[in-house]
Amino acid sequence: MDNKSVRWFVVLFIVYAIALAVGLFSVQRPVPVPDGWVGTVADPKTFIPEGELEENALFARIRDLLYFLQTPLMWLLVLIGLFAGWFRRAKEWLDRRIKLRIWSGTAFAVAVLTAVELIQLPFHGAYYALSRYSGVSNMSVGFWLTDQLKASLLSVAMSLPVVFLLFFFIRNSPRRWWAWMGLISVPLTLFFVFIQPVVLDPLFNDYTLLRESELKADILALADQAGIPADNVYEVNMSERTNALNAYVTGIGSNARIVLWDTMLEQMSTEEILFTMAHEIGHYQMRHVYWGTFFSIAGTFLSLYLVFRGSRWLLAKFGWLWDIPSLSRVTALPVLLLVFSVVHFVATPVNTGISRVMETSADEYALQMTGAPEAGISGFQQLARKGRSETYPPRFIRWWRYTHPSISERLHRFESERGSGSALE
């Protein structure tokens, strides 16, 4: 056991956590909007009470703190496990009790994947507690725990075959395994994009056909204009979970689905719903699902190559100390997960930046398709109120975490469009 390394990791994490907390909570709450936006529809003070604004900003800073602690804490625990020999001893313990190596290796992989889920559980619990306290979540503790259990079991079950393939390629192609895994990711990604709406989503929520109405006819008319091959609109029962509002278009080809949360149907006007649906339909019409899938596959190839290089470097430096002589050993799984997590975390601003570009273009599509910026303004203000959103976060948080432009930025864009009148042309 390398006690010195373990102590240094712990000290560095504590210093990081303190510096992070000081940096996040020293930011003015709420963050002031630009001077030119003060008093306009983009100014949250015009549609959210002052006390609620401050509370929303506080909740947002707590969520940011949890986010920036969650993944580094996993790195810390994995590194401690490697330097302290936890993983090596766990594999030895399994080997003594399970004679067939393939089964002991499987048990080790399941244990590691389960440990990752357990590390994240307290953070998920904190997010849930915040949502419950702020009035966004309606879920009981039992309901939430059941959801978490289903999600964790599904994650481990879906990850295990990927781990088998990973080590198969590492053992049979030590220098090209990352490329083979990248190729395998192509059909896997397409498969999950295709089956998610009809197989995975119903595991967590109840989907029913939206009753025949003028709203349904209007939504299908918008979809038809965009060439979406959908002849039905689905309503999902989210009110048992949340007071937040949402709608989306998911899937590709014959599995494309238009979905509205029941909370939106209950609380938004027809014009606001149609504007939101036009935004979602814009994603489909502009092939954002396909572009997103392409970027996901390309990112997977790049990530796997970086994992290949990074894990080889780590084993060259510390493999002797961790008793992991080769990546082909199943005990190298924590190393591979560690490097992949670092790569994924560092790449977050790239992914969110691409998403914000797509969201901005979908907003433009909605403005042009509906010619109703007023509906966009009132609808997004309601989204912010119901979701207890921070409408104008600090610049760094927007850059790193936000997959959408902030609510205030979007409202300013809608107001500009309303003033120019170009949306109606």
From TrEMBL:
Transmembrane segments: 7-27, 65-87, 108-129, 149-170, 177-199, 289-308
Protein name (Swiss-Prot/TrEMBL): Peptidase M48
Location of the CAAX prenyl protease 1 N-terminal domain: 74-205
Cofactor: Zn(2+)
Cofactor, how bound (note): Binds 1 zinc ion per subunit.
GO BP term, example: CAAX-box protein processing
Active site: E280, D363
Keyword line: Hydrolase, Membrane, Metal-binding, Metalloprotease, Protease, Transmembrane, Transmembrane helix, Zinc
Family that this chain belongs to: Belongs to the peptidase M48 family.
Domain of life, source organism: Bacteria
Pfam families named among the record's database cross-references: Peptidase_M48, Peptidase_M48_N
One function term, GO molecular function aspect: metalloendopeptidase activity
Domain Peptidase M48: 211-416
Keyword Membrane annotated: yes
Keyword Protease attributed: yes
PANTHER family: CAAX PRENYL PROTEASE 1 (PTHR10120)
Residues holding Zn(2+): H279, H283, E359
